[in-house]
Specification:
There is one protein chain. By secondary structure, the chain is mainly α. It is built from eleven helices and no strands. Helix 2 runs parallel beside helix 6 and helix 6 crosses helix 7. The model has no long low-confidence stretch (mean pLDDT 81).
């Protein structure tokens, strides 16, 4: 079997797990919907968007990007469980390419993420979010969101292979939350202190959120800076860099894995 076929077999195996135990993706969607309701309806009336525009339209693409980011700990936990149970060792004893098993996990998680994103988009339209851009632009925005997710998945797979202690998952969650909140996902960087706004502009998640807002035809909350003119290019570049770093690291960690 070639590597792609091997990866597809691994993908089917992981998808079947979700068919039998669908609670993880269901709770993931419920959590994202809860955040949407909290920020959109409780705090939304008090938040102004630089450059004008409705805050709900600003918020939704940020929530989509946040959902793509939060997958890192879920993926890490799944990979860690397979490793602790000896499942990964059994795969390594078979004539399977070293990247096939991690790639299968990434493909399955990406499929799950696409479903979550579709559900959130429909929910957003129901509560008043609008897409004012072109169909092609909206499709590119979805592609950029999933591109970010793909890069984040490799980070999760790598961490799941190298960090297997009891506190590892909590440590990753502690890192993910500051990354989400030091970005433009919920508020515009221009409303932050200068030093924090500069960090938010450099955040990889900010680039994806800004590009998605622009492509969806929503307010970006950006009036100047790199993301004002080149958000799509930056949103393409950041996940490419992350994937180029963590995909080989994950494959190497899988090859060198020892219990």
């Amino acid at each position: 079997m070639n590597t792609l076929h091997q990866s597809w077999v691994m993908t089917q195996r992981d998808l079947k797990h979700w068919q039998r135990e669908p609670w993880t993706p269901i709770f993931g969607i419920a959590f994202s919907v809860m955040l949407l309701l909290v920020f959109g309806f409780l705090f939304g009336g008090a938040i102004e968007v630089p450059g004008g525009g409705d805050y709900l339209d600003y918020l939704l693409p940020g929530m989509f990007a946040m959902t793509m980011l939060f997958g890192v700990e879920t993926t890490m936990a799944a990979v860690t469980q397979d490793t602790k149970r000896g499942i990964t060792d059994r795969f390594r004893s078979m004539p399977i390419h070293s990247v096939a098993v991690p790639l299968g996990r990434a493909a399955a998680d990406l499929t799950n993420s696409a479903v979550q994103l579709a559900v959130l988009m429909v929910g957003g339209l129901v509560v008043g979010w609008s897409i004012d851009g072109s169909v092609a632009g909206a499709a590119l925005a979805v592609g950029l969101l999933l591109w970010l997710r793909f890069a984040v998945l490799w980070i999760g797979i790598y961490l799941g292979l190298v960090l297997r202690g009891e506190g590892a998952l909590m440590a990753v969650q502690v890192l993910v939350w500051p990354l989400a909140f030091t970005s433009n996902l919920l508020v515009a960087p221009e409303t932050m202190p200068d030093w924090l706004g500069a960090l938010a502009q450099l955040n990889p998640v900010s680039a994806t959120a800004a590009a998605a807002r622009d492509l969806f035809g929503n307010p970006t909350g950006i009036t100047d800076g790199l993301l004002a003119d080149h958000a799509v290019l930056v949103a393409l570049a950041w996940p490419a860099v992350l994937t180029a770093v963590f995909l080989p690291l994950a494959a190497r960690a899988y090859r060198n894995l020892s219990r």
